[in-house]
Prior knowledge:
With 163 residues, the chain is mainly beta. 11% of the residues lie in helices and 53% in strands. The relative contact order is 0.07.
Amino acid sequence: MMKPFTTFVCLASIALGACSQGEKTTLTYPDGIKKAAGLLNHHGAKDGHWTYWYRNGQRSLEGEYTAGREEGIWIAWHENGNKSLEGELKAGKKDGNWTRWHENGQKHSEGDYKDGKKEGNWTSWDNSGKKESERVWKNNVGYPVDLPRGAKGSAAAFTYTLR
């Protein structure tokens, strides 16, 4: 026969294990095709690993949530199955290296984010793999690299926001 303390520890471990796993949830398109699957915490917020699919059944997006916020590495795919995006989120904001690919698999762009803003060197390529541009980003403002200077010798600048 188990002692009362041992029984309590066993039951507490089971309860905590069940709570930390969350409730498995599947979302569907109106016609019943699977759209997303993952875990919801006891507050109903997305928590843990989630996967999303296109209507054709091809995986479209995959990543982690912590209490409803995107965290860690997120990967997206084009509908043809080629990778379209990979990057890291911290507290729901882009942070660290991000890479995008054209639908044909050629790299589209690569660079870093810091606290949700582009930062440092960014390179972009056309869909044949030819380098299109290089920019240095600071506070979400991009400055061309090795391009003609603007008026009075200052680099031309522009602001860019990802959709």
